[in-house]
DNA sequence: CATCTGATG
DNA sequence: CATCAGATG
């Protein structure tokens, strides 16, 4: 499978350029970054970041669970999002596709000039999960997945290192309608993933910004009605307790930190026309370690943006306020 | 599986009514007909025929390949069709569903009062093939399939006997994009099905009216452009030759018989916006034996009716002109 | 390109 | 209810 990916890259690259066959599909080196591509199935979608470093001290980072890349492109909502949000960096969840399935012309049309793209697609189940990072600031490096085979099949993590911070985009496994994956999620995934975050933060020696659909509502304030939700995925005691262990490690839910009382949701089930009646859940987050919070300016939830069952969230940071 | 079907019937019938467990799911007896239901998975959809015999000497029989019963219902096109066509009897092809999947309320709403319904769903592949007959004249008997196991899995045939004729509704197996089923279609299905028709006509000793998507275009006149079509399903030499053997047995393509020069199509691929440019095929037919043709008044192709990739066709007959 | 199913959320 | 894949036409 690795061979296949690399072959695809070769096909798409100009013939004089080349990527070493030794390169794994898990690590995005400076070399590949220089070509504006990733190795992991997205070689066909070029793009060159406008900036090699942050042009401004203010940076806005967005996260959006798009519930299908194909759908948001075809509805014109990806283009609309990029034009209106003008993100410096945006992390996508649930792309739900292999990139071979996406028309490269349509994707190109949806993304303004000056962005480069990194996509991590599910290797096993097709049309499932998957993440992406689109950025106009060139990352120093990009890594896919967390280096533990049993967690690395579904394209759930992309880690992009920039000069001033490391950004981790995650789509946490949902426990399932019947909670069939609750044990895997809380006892295996969460533990290993939280360890991965600690490891990255220690290794890189710079602030870590985590964002994504964490598939857990933290508290009563984060769900429209707790009644009967203790046996519903994203609000089981197990998931909430597991999330609490992460918070106990020192990581801070920036939205709740900034707005201790605010009731705003990021996800509205399509099953019950939930958005119109504001029956939502807050399950998409930005999380920073408490020692790295100084640079956080704001964290907004953009409820009015349509196109998915999740709405986009935005973190604004100020690099001049970074804790040294 | 038979047990299951019968159990379903029981559930839906008034408790004082009952159907013998001995009854097979292949034969619709007078008893079940009396309840306005069929045994074959459609028990939940009642309905009572308005007429127990032909109220008029003129009878109009329609056939329409609807490309998905669910879709035509949801688009409102089934209701529109029933209201505009006012068929005495209509045969549907490609219902593409199990009736459990259809909202019985929606189906009820789409069909005017006074019709009873017979549905033959694919037993193996779900969402595939399937036929139906909806009639406001109560049939004397209704049979499903042709009594040969290898042909009877996909719900392709319903035979309804009326006082003055026997009606066979068929959805002939398509040979497939890659012709993978061409041999089955021409060497197994066609042979056995044509024999079945002869048998029915002999046994019933009354005119046989065959209608359906026969998945073959008879001649150059029946296809918008023959170029390259010799290797395309519905126009291979094998399919056309097989169809010719049927014609050689004495069965007459009523449309071509009435209109020897007319170029009208019944199917327009959705793949190329074919309907707007009239790039169609004539693959839906009414066929009667040459000895039974006297009662045929007209056979119309209703090109302007939308809702499917096929258009409805109509046979008008006059029972007073029946050959004795 | 349009239908259906089945998995998933 | 809405996404995607894959089968089928």
Automatic annotation (TrEMBL), chains A, B:
Boundaries of every Endonuclease/exonuclease/phosphatase domain copy: 64-310
Residues at the site labelled Transition state stabilizer: 215
Keywords: DNA damage, DNA repair, Hydrolase, Magnesium, Manganese, Metal-binding
Site (described: Interaction with DNA substrate): 310
Cofactor binding description: Probably binds two magnesium or manganese ions per subunit.
Gene Ontology molecular function: any one: DNA-(apurinic or apyrimidinic site) endonuclease activity
EC nos: 3.1.-.-
Residues that hold Mg(2+) according to the record: 65, 94, 213, 215, 309-310
Keyword match Ribosomal protein: no
Site (Important for catalytic activity): 284
GO biological process, one term: base-excision repair
Record GO cellular component, one term: nucleus
Protein name, as recorded: DNA-(apurinic or apyrimidinic site) endonuclease
Gene: Contig7530.g8039
Residues of the full protein shown: 13 to 336 of 567
């Amino acid at each position: 499978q690795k061979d296949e990916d690399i072959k695809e890259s070769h096909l798409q690259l100009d013939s004089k350029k080349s990527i070493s066959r030794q390169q794994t599909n898990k690590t995005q080196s400076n070399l590949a970054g220089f070509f504006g591509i990733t190795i992991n199935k997205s070689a066909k979608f070029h793009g060159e970041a406008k900036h090699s470093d942050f042009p401004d001290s203010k940076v806005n980072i967005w996260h959006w669970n798009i519930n299908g890349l194909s759908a948001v492109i075809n509805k014109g909502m990806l283009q609309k999002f990029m034009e209106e949000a003008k993100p410096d960096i945006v992390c996508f969840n649930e792309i739900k596709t292999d990139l071979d399935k996406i028309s490269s012309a349509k994707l190109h049309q949806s993304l303004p000039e000056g962005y480069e793209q990194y996509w991590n697609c599910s290797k096993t189940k097709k049309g499932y999960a998957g993440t992406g990072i689109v950025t106009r600031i060139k990352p120093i490096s990009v890594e896919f997945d967390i280096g533990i085979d049993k967690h690395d099949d579904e394209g759930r993590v992309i880690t992009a290192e920039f000069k001033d911070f490391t950004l981790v985009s995650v789509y946490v496994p949902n426990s399932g309608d019947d909670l069939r994956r609750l044990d895997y999620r809380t006892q295996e995934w969460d533990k290993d993933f939280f360890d991965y975050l600690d490891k990255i933060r220690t290794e890189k020696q710079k602030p870590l910004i985590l964002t994504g659909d964490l598939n857990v509502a933290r508290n009563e304030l984060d769900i429209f009605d707790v009644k009967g939700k203790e046996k519903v995925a994203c609000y089981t005691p197990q998931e909430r307790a597991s999330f609490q262990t992460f918070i106990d490690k020192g990581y801070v839910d920036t939205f709740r930190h900034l707005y201790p009382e605010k009731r705003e949701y990021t996800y509205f089930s399509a099953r019950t026309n939930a958005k119109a009646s504001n029956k939502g859940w807050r399950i998409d987050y930005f999380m920073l370690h408490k020692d790295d919070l100084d640079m956080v300016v704001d964290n907004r939830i953009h409820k009015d943006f349509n196109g998915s069952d999740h709405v986009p969230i935005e973190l604004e940071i100020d690099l001049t306020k970074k804790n040294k």
